[in-house]
Each structure stands twice: as structure tokens, then as C-alpha cells.
Amino acid sequence: MSKTLIIGASGQIGKLTTKLLLERQHPVVALVRDKSKLDDLNSDYLTIVEQDLENDFSDALHGCDHIIFAAGSGGNTGADKTLLIDLWAATKAINYAKEHAAKHFTMVSSIGADDPDAIQSDLKPYLVAKHMADRHLINSGLNYTIVRPGSLTNESASKLISTERPKDRDKAIISRENVAHVLFTIATEQGSNRCIFEVFDGDKPIKAAIK
């Protein structure tokens, strides 16, 4: 069975995805800065690697077929952490994935990362970082999927999504649990290579929506 590395496994989406994979007895390597944040996870299929993404974390990719980059600097950090995590750490992860001949790389990006100039807000540095990381992945030669969620909510998973951006901005939302189910599907189906899509809460089953 293939092994999945989740970078940022203690974040909300990363941890939800980790749980989904472990529940299906899928081997997971969880890369976190503080392993105590995963103390509530107990599985023979889980390996925890404690490492700071600002340092060299290449060893964590050893033996992993699928890489999920779900790390983020967080909304309460400055532009420096956005640069170091959302851009530089993501870029390093892509380079490490090439060195380890990973079969697939999934990037959790963001709506708006396709054209950061179209959005004038405090989020622009974050979107620029995501845009550049996405471009690096596209040009890497790796098989990849770039997932760009809408605004995130804490609603329960409906497991129904849309990849078409709603005309009403207020409806351009998706629950974190739905994003996790999308990432789980990509990791286990291995069917979406070199594709980019936005995801929102919708009315289609996940497999059908991202096929």
C-alpha cells in the first residue's frame, strides 16, 4: 500500500485528512512542528516526524508515494512567515519530492491564487506566495493536483462539492471537512494528475466532481 506524507498534519485540514486516511488503514507520515498536537491520534499506521519547515525536512519524504502540502503560516502571522512557509517551505517540499521520486504531489492552495492582482486586500501577500508555489509545482515535472478551496468554514462534511466558482461571493465557501475528504479522495484514488481546480460546497459527490 502506498504511503502518504502530510506536511502540516497538525493544522485543521491536515489533521482531518490524517484521521480519514488512518481510519481506512492507510499508512501516513505526519510532519509537524509539535508532535504533542497529535497526542489524540493512536494508530499502527501513523508515523510522526517532528520538524520545523524552516529547516531541512527532506528525510520525512523517504518512502512516501504521495505528498500533501497542507501547511500554512496562519492568519495571525506576518508577511515574513507567509514567505517562509506558504512559499519557501512549499518550494522546498516540491524539490524534495522530485529528489525522492514521489508519484504525486497535492498542494492545498487558495481561491484567488490564480490571479493575486484581482484581489485588493490584506490577503494579497498570502495569495502571491500561493501563486508562486503553485507555479513552481506546475513547472516541476511532478504529477500534481492543486486544490484551491473557497473561504473555509467549520461546518460538518456534506461530502458534496462543486468545482465551479459561485457567482455570489458569499457562497464561495467550503467546510474544512469537505476539503479533507477531497484530499483523501485524491490520495487514495490516484486518478487526478496535473490538474488544478477550485472547490466549494456544492451538490455533487466528490469523486464525480473531481473526476
From TrEMBL:
Pfam families: NAD_binding_10 (PF13460). Gene3D superfamilies: NAD(P)-binding Rossmann-like Domain. Residues 8-189 form the NAD(P)-binding domain. PANTHER family: FLAVIN REDUCTASE-RELATED, UPF0659 PROTEIN YMR090W. It comes from Pseudoalteromonas undina. This is NAD(P)-binding domain-containing protein. CDD domains: SDR_a5.
